[in-house]
Task: inverse folding
């Protein structure tokens, strides 16, 4: 398994971008049966964290700067390919994302989590800070992590 951290959109290769969008489409749109606008302007100002198994993208997240989604830094589009679930890759991608932000001195991280993953994110120290609300028909909550 190999990590790839791409610090800005312009540094993504065409293959990286294709694999990211394919994985997000497969999980968030097809698997979850949710038609929504995945390709958004936020990708353009985000960092991208990828975990590869040779040339297969196993897991991905994006690190979003303050002001693009929330007033704090955030982690979004956290996704694991179906073939890699149950093998702790979800934990690894979240851990790597948090570590990357902490290494930059980020002290507060906000996420918009699918509600069924509340316990998963709580295990990293995230605290629920909102009531449940729908995003494209899926219940979500906002959560905060204080890293300092």
Result:
């Amino acid at each position: 398994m190999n990590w790839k951290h791409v610090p800005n959109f312009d540094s993504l290769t065409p293959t990286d971008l294709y694999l990211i969008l394919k994985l997000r489409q497969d999980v968030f749109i097809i698997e979850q049966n949710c038609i929504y606008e995945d390709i958004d302007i936020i990708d353009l100002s985000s960092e991208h964290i990828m975990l590869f198994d040779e040339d297969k993208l196993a897991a991905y997240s994006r690190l979003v700067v303050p002001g693009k989604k929330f007033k704090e830094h955030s982690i979004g589009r956290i996704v694991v390919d179906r073939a890699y679930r149950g093998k702790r890759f979800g934990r690894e991608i979240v851990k790597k994302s948090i570590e990357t932000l902490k290494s930059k001195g980020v002290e507060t991280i906000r996420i918009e989590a699918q509600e069924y993953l509340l316990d998963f994110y709580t295990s990293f120290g995230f605290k629920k800070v909102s009531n449940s609300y729908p995003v494209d028909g899926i219940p979500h909550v906002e959560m905060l992590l204080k890293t300092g």
